Amino acid sequence: MKDRIVYIMEKEKLSIPLFAKKIGIGPSTLLHIIRGKNAPSLQVVQAIHKAYPDIDLNWLIE
Protein backbone atom coordinates (compact mmCIF):
# COMPACT_ATOMS: atom_id res chain seq x y z
CA MET A 1 0.00 0.00 0.00
CA LYS A 2 2.88 2.36 0.67
CA ASP A 3 3.83 2.20 -3.01
CA ARG A 4 0.34 3.30 -3.97
CA ILE A 5 0.50 6.20 -1.53
CA VAL A 6 3.82 7.27 -3.06
CA TYR A 7 2.25 6.93 -6.51
CA ILE A 8 -0.60 9.26 -5.51
CA MET A 9 1.86 11.77 -4.06
CA GLU A 10 3.97 11.73 -7.22
CA LYS A 11 0.93 12.01 -9.47
CA GLU A 12 -0.34 14.99 -7.48
CA LYS A 13 3.20 16.43 -7.22
CA LEU A 14 2.91 16.73 -3.43
CA SER A 15 5.71 16.51 -0.90
CA ILE A 16 5.34 14.48 2.28
CA PRO A 17 4.36 17.53 4.36
CA LEU A 18 1.81 18.75 1.80
CA PHE A 19 0.23 15.34 1.25
CA ALA A 20 0.09 14.72 5.00
CA LYS A 21 -1.63 18.06 5.50
CA LYS A 22 -4.10 17.34 2.71
CA ILE A 23 -5.16 14.05 4.31
CA GLY A 24 -5.00 15.39 7.86
CA ILE A 25 -2.13 13.44 9.40
CA GLY A 26 1.31 14.39 10.64
CA PRO A 27 4.25 14.31 8.25
CA SER A 28 6.16 11.95 10.54
CA THR A 29 3.26 9.48 10.48
CA LEU A 30 3.26 9.55 6.69
CA LEU A 31 7.03 9.18 6.56
CA HIS A 32 6.86 6.08 8.78
CA ILE A 33 4.25 4.57 6.47
CA ILE A 34 6.31 5.29 3.35
CA ARG A 35 9.46 3.86 4.94
CA GLY A 36 7.57 0.73 5.97
CA LYS A 37 7.96 1.26 9.71
CA ASN A 38 4.20 1.42 10.24
CA ALA A 39 1.26 0.09 8.30
CA PRO A 40 -1.39 2.66 7.45
CA SER A 41 -4.25 2.64 9.91
CA LEU A 42 -7.88 2.47 8.87
CA GLN A 43 -8.12 6.18 9.65
CA VAL A 44 -5.28 6.95 7.22
CA VAL A 45 -6.92 4.88 4.49
CA GLN A 46 -10.21 6.66 5.08
CA ALA A 47 -8.48 10.06 5.06
CA ILE A 48 -6.85 9.31 1.70
CA HIS A 49 -10.17 8.18 0.27
CA LYS A 50 -11.92 11.27 1.62
CA ALA A 51 -9.30 13.56 0.04
CA TYR A 52 -9.29 11.54 -3.20
CA PRO A 53 -12.77 10.00 -3.59
CA ASP A 54 -12.04 8.88 -7.15
CA ILE A 55 -9.40 6.43 -5.90
CA ASP A 56 -10.67 2.88 -5.73
CA LEU A 57 -10.33 1.59 -2.17
CA ASN A 58 -9.63 -1.94 -3.39
CA TRP A 59 -6.70 -0.67 -5.46
CA LEU A 60 -5.40 1.35 -2.53
CA ILE A 61 -5.39 -1.48 0.00
CA GLU A 62 -4.17 -4.30 -2.27
From TrEMBL:
GO terms for molecular function: DNA binding. InterPro entries: Cro/C1-type_HTH, Lambda_DNA-bd_dom_sf. Coiled coil: none annotated. Residues 5-60 form the HTH cro/C1-type domain. This is XRE family transcriptional regulator.
